[in-house]
Amino acid sequence: MIRRIEIVRAHINLVSPFRTSFATEVDRNLLYVRVVGDDEEGWGECVAMAAPLYSSEFVDGCEEVMKRYLIPMISSLTTAEEFVQKSAAIRGNFMAKAAIEAALLDYQLRKASMSLANFLGATQTKVASGVSVGIQPTIDDLLRVVAEYRADGYVRIKLKIEPGLDIDRVRAVRDAFGPDMLLQVDANAAYTVDDAAHLAKLDEFNLLLIEQPLPEEDIVGHVELSKRVGTPICLDESITSYDVARGALDINACSIINIKPGRVGGYLESKRIHDLCLSRGVPVWCGGMLETGIGRAANLALAALPGFTLPGDTSASKRYFTQDVTTPFELVDGYINVPNTVGIGVRPIAEVLGAMTSRVDSYSITK
Fold first, then answer.
1. Residue 367 is among the residues annotated as catalytic for this protein
2. Distance between CA 27 and CA 344 in Å, rounded?
């Protein structure tokens, strides 16, 4: 039986600044959810940023929603599936919901002696790992960073782009590393449909995809862009649920989907989107939100499902952190092993997380 829910607030620095079209991140304000029962526990990680820049959610807001609305929905016997049904009454707030759902899943699967990977239907024991390269100060810096990641063994490179820092940089990387390197770009909604002719210039570089070129609300704009650009269009920020994913595919707004559990409300909804895409022959891949080992472990379980045919952003721990809060995930010959024990397969290292923690709030479950 669930006895209490803990919200753990902590802080961790990134090994280097990570610049996208909307922000430069140098650290993460961490929010973990811990479900504590009679003889077991479960952990979930909230992926929201400190400010509402990637999405409308931000980490302090997620905590408030959890405390005021979501945790009171939980009883001593609530399952992750039941929580998803109850929390549907709260509009949006997907990242807050996803963190609690993940902790409940970890808890109940540990009690059932089952791994999250097996529960979701994983068919792979390791997943191909790509890496996301932030916008660099110069082209020389970009080439150096890409060379380092290639030397590490990453099988796919993703370049963040924005207007004015796109065509020349992609060309430089393609020329330097050859036509066979798996390469894609991510705009994080930095362009408009009026930039279609400009974005079409990317077609010459044989990219896997252009990720989220237009604002998240402009689904129709992506339909038009898909007609004018030869490179496959992948949606990220726009896809917030199964229903949105189905609609986007129905109108040909994209041909690839990036599934981020935090963005869609959790791993159960992520599996529904995966199953939809698999049934339609649409490739998916698992995006990242600079997760520590707790979130990364769960993402690896998801990325092991059969429809994840493109390398994701499930990079090694050292890509982001000097010291992760769990045993670090390591890249081996371009792959990362999927945890295969119980639950998400990892727990935080108590002394490491303790040194990072600023506050722990505990909420007793009495019903």
1. no
2. 24
